[in-house]
Amino acid sequence: MTLAATEAPLLKHTDVLRQRLELQGARVADVGCGDGSLARVMARAGAQVVGIDPGPQQLARAAAAEAAGDEVYVCALGEALPLSDGCLDAVVFFNALHHVPVPVQGAALREAARVLSPGGLVYVQEPLAEGSYFEIMRPVEDETEVRARAYDAVKAAGKDLGEEAEFVYRAPFRVKSVEAFLKGLVAVDPARRDAVAGRQESLREAFLAAAEQRDDGFWFEIPSRLNLLRRH
User: pTM value?
Assistant: First the structure.
């Protein structure tokens, strides 16, 4: 890890989110919402949430979960949001911007700006390309470049939107089992299926060697960066 990351505070992602976003009564889009876990966290805190994801399988999991509050899910791309201009208070990219194809990462952030009302926030949380969990995943998909390009896109967007804050922290991350870890790699990106299948044993060994095993599962610390951009 970098010096900044090793000395960064250990904080839960959800605690950081609640500290940095006013959720009660807010209109929020969760772009790249996956199975809807974060959308439900925000809905429980009183937000009106639209979860957006291009993956039908992930959205099916989100829709099948018990509703937490005022949340809905839509199949769409981050660079083509099916939302009207100025209709939201916040757009969240949680561990998601680097999954947007590099050529349209900037377009996705411009779309976020378009759908925000004046004073609205773009909340971009990204994992850093370092740490034990990143090294385990690297043989399956090395995201060093796409994560760097996502950061470039955020910094470029900040010139138009205005940079509110940048904050580095370490987030605790629990995985129930090795099997859950392997399934999760594919669930996030089905294109990884063959790579995961061909490396199952080495992935198992690396996972067990790096994780801290506790009674409730296997734990890692994920070095993370939060960027907040505010529409003028």
Answer: 0.93
